[in-house]
Give the backbone structure.
Amino acid sequence: MNLNVIKDQIKNNLNKKVLVSVFGLRNRVDRFEGTLYKAYPNIFTVLIRGEEKSFTYRDVITGEVKLKYL
C-alpha cells in the first residue's frame, strides 16, 4: 500500500469506530476498539476509553498495526 492511500483512508474515516490490532513481540497481539480521533502529518490517534493512543502510518504499512473499520 501507498502512504498517501493510508493517510486518505484514515482522514476519510475520522470520528468513526475502528478495531485496532497491534502486533508486538513474542507473537503478542493487543486489540482495542475505539474512534479514529485525529490525523497529523506523521501520526494518527485513536480514542480508546477516553485515552488517546497514537500510531504512525508506517506501522500500518509494515503490518505492525492493522485497522478494521466498523
